[in-house]
Amino acid sequence: MLCVRDVCARYGSRTILDHVSFRLRPHQLTALVGRNGCGKSTLVSCINQCLPYTGEITFSDRSLALMTDRERAQTIAILPQVLPAPHITVEELVTFGRSPYLDLGHRLTLRDHQAVEEAMERAGVAPLRRQMVDQLSGGERQNACLAMVLAQSTRVIVLDEPTTYMDMAHQAAFLKQLHTLKSARKKTILVILHDLNQAIQYADELIVLEQGKVRFQGSAESCLSCGILEEIFDVRKHLFLENGQRFVLFSAD
Amino acid sequence: MLLLLLCVVLLSLRLGSAQMSNLEFFCSLLHRPGYETGSLILYGLRLPRSVAGVLAGAGLSVSGVLLQSVTGNAMAAPNLIGVNAGAGFAVVLLLFFFPTAAVYALPPAAFLGAFLTTLAIVTLAGKLGASKITIILAGLACTAILNAGISFFSLLDTDLLDSYSYFSSGGLSGIRMEQLALPALFILACLIWSLALSRQIDLLCLGDSMAASLGVRVRSLRMACLICASASAAAVVSFAGLLGFVGLIVPHIARRLTGFRVLPLLLSSVLCGGTLVVLGDLLGRLLFAPSELPVGIVMAFLGAPFFLFLLLRRRTAL
């Protein structure tokens, strides 16, 4: 599985990631949380091999840095925080997800078409297939991007703040979708989230990053009980029960 | 579109300062005895010009499509990567130091000047990270230096300006078929290379990080496209001089016809560019016949208003 070992990254003289190490648990949804500027997106860039780093990032004990670009793209799909809205149809966008599998002639096989179709159905964008991506709402566009990432058919998916441009209903639907994916499609998902309530509610595991260092990795339950979130984010935790179900709410002081 | 190009080429062969009837035209085209003069005009003068027009349009359009795609800048054109300034500077140097050799040495000098300048810009941009903005800034800096060089040598030798002005306005008159073989090979190779890279170039519209996640080696692809764009435009500059605006406007026209995907865009731009330059050359020959207006000037007349239209439309969109 995806393993980050002793990774350090810097912008000029400023250290952004300081000996970061963690291992993702297979078929689990892991949320990476941390304050602004703690190095979350830098970590995603390192996994994407877009930034130089020291240490090692491996998948099944194979270094990502030593894989070919094609091989890596068949192993890990990464959805960056900001994605431009190109003037192409949703179907064309989702088809881009099959790029790592195409031969020199760029022809889509039956298997590629099936993967595209299935990804669009699963992300709920099949009815929008003929619509232009730049004419979609923020939520629809993010679902279309999720479909593209799903069409990539990788075992690991990394999403950098995917719910930023969504309203609350779309955010909940999107995160539920991720929850379904990890169990139904056996995907291992690492998602960067800003909303602690969402992270606790949907993630199986949490990784807490502070000033480029991993301060905590463990289950959502143990993260709640150890009080690390209150310390790092300077928030207060409220627990309440409704219809026998326990809810957690964080509020800033 | 192919049909339109063929019609324009046929029209360009048919019309010119030497008048001929339809019968004369077809007999000359078929090399019938008694029509040797007509055949000479068609095959020796008008056909090389038409072929040069098609090649110039195709080469500059391929370059424009590649540059606009990899820099994500709708206003990008071959002059952005120093093609015009590089070729111009090399020609000015040649005219200044070896004026007698200029007739033979001008095409290779223009090609080398344009290509080497782009290589310098690409290397500079590469050292700065090869992002979209560094390419544009490195291009602007190198272009400014070379333009200063052109002005400097022009001041030292004012006669040089007369010889340079025809090259800088871009024209197709007096072109011979044998001059076109090598540039045609370059342009064809660049077109094939671009078509092979088209799928990867498409992915750049999703941004560098997403393209990298989909298996694209973004930096290498951007460099390969810049070199290809430069070789294609430099090949055109070597026989047609500094033809402006084709590389800028044709991709925009083609995008309206075939959409944003690079493969159909490249093919439609080649046909569209060829049609536009041959048509521009034809207009230049006919408007003030028997005098000729270089195609570069005609294209500037057509292209500059279109450029302003683009700017105004962008402003409205903002």
Task: Explain what this protein looks like in three dimensions.
The complex is a heterodimer of chains A (253) and B (318). Chain A is an alpha/beta fold and 253 residues long. Chain A is built from 9 helices and 12 strands. Helices cover 34% and strands 30% of the residues of chain A. In chain A, a hairpin with a 2-residue loop joins strand 11 (235-242) and strand 12 (245-252). By secondary structure, chain B is an all-alpha fold. Helices cover 79% and strands 0% of the residues of chain B. Chain B has helices at 2-14, 22-29, 36-71, 83-97, 102-127, 132-156, 160-169, 177-203, 208-213, 218-240, 246-258, 262-286, 295-317. Chain B is globular and about 65 Å long. The two termini of chain B are 33 Å apart. The mean pLDDT of chain B is 82. Chain A binds chain B through residues 45, 48-50, 69-70, 72-74, 76-80, 82-84, 86-88, 92-93, 96-97, 99-100, 102, 104, 106, 152, and chain B through 196, 198-200, 202-203, 205-210, 212-217, 259-261, 263.
Q: Which descriptors would you attach to this protein?
A:
heterodimer, A: alpha/beta, 9 helices, 34% helix, 30% strand, B: 318 residues, mainly alpha, 79% helix, globular
Offer a quick outline of the entry.
The complex is a heterodimer of chains A (253) and B (318). By secondary structure, chain A is of the alpha/beta class. Chain A has helices at residues 40-47, 69-73, 90-96, 110-123, 138-151, 168-184, 196-202, 220-226, 228-233, and strands spanning 2-11, 14-23, 29-34, 54-59, 62-63, 76-79, 156-160, 188-192, 205-210, 213-219, 235-242, 245-252.
Unreliable spans of chain A are none
- In order across it, which strands form the biggest sheet of chain A? 6-7-8-3-9-10
Q: Count every helix of chain B, treating DSSP H or I runs of 4 or more residues as helices.
A: 13
Going by helix content, strand content and strand pairing, the class of chain B is: mainly alpha
Q: Tell me about the biggest sheet of chain A?
A: 6 strands, mixed
Shape of chain A: globular
Average pLDDT taken over every residue of chain B: 82
Shape of chain B: globular
Note the quaternary state here: heterodimer
Structure classification of chain A = alpha/beta
